[in-house]
Amino acid sequence: MRYDVVFLDVDKTILWVDVDIEGYVEDLARYTKNGSLTVEQAEGAVWEGMRKHIYENINYQTEEELAEFRRNNARDTARNLGLDVPGEVLDQVQERRILYNPYPESEAVMEELAGMGLPLYTVSNWDVALRTVLEDLGWTRYFEGIVASAEVGSEKPDGHIFEEALRVAGFTGRRDRVVHVGNDPVSDIRGAASSGIDAVLIDREGCLKAPEALVTLPDLRGLPALVRGREDG
Hints:
Elements: E1 5-8, E2 15-19, H1 21-28, H2 39-56, H3 63-80, H4 87-97, E3 98-102, H5 106-115, E4 120-124, H6 130-137, E5 143-148, H7 149-152, H8 159-169, E6 178-182, H9 185-194, E7 198-202, E8 215-217, H10 223-228
Parallel strand pairs: 1-4, 1-6, 4-5, 6-7, 7-8
Antiparallel strand pairs: 2-3
Helix pairs in contact: 1-2, 2-3, 3-4
């Protein structure tokens, strides 16, 4: 085969994260202090809270620290919407209304790659709860190791997270025998290429440019053939 190890990004590569805003409003409208809460009112504040989580979760390197950060972030979002919500209710709503949606082909492709005897590792800018997310999807069986930026203290495109992934994989061979697959031209493609690792761009919308990418694929379906060193799908 062309490669000995595959690194996979997570968000927007094998799944996408969404928030059920309508469900959030349904759960929390009763706690409003101003008489009403609409989807339109909630949407901006909820997604702003999600962006804060993405930008700051690397600062919280234990499950306990992350849980406290998430709780405080959720309280800030609720207060911005004029809601007075008990903390335990916010925890339950977050658990229920943040959705991790697999792409249609993801599981079949990971199954095929694993069936080829190819070790897979996640290399993702994600909080320390990544393993729990993958466990809930039943996906940890596909991965030999899970490398999350918050655990490493380094985010792609920084080279340290790729070096840590190589260490976790116990890989000491030629780096052109490792391929990293992701959706971000900078974090995934430039980051991997700068570490001497081949990079494959997943461009589901057909609008990205990544000169450093070995190849661009519209989804994951072409990955097994690429790994085998074949051009056909």
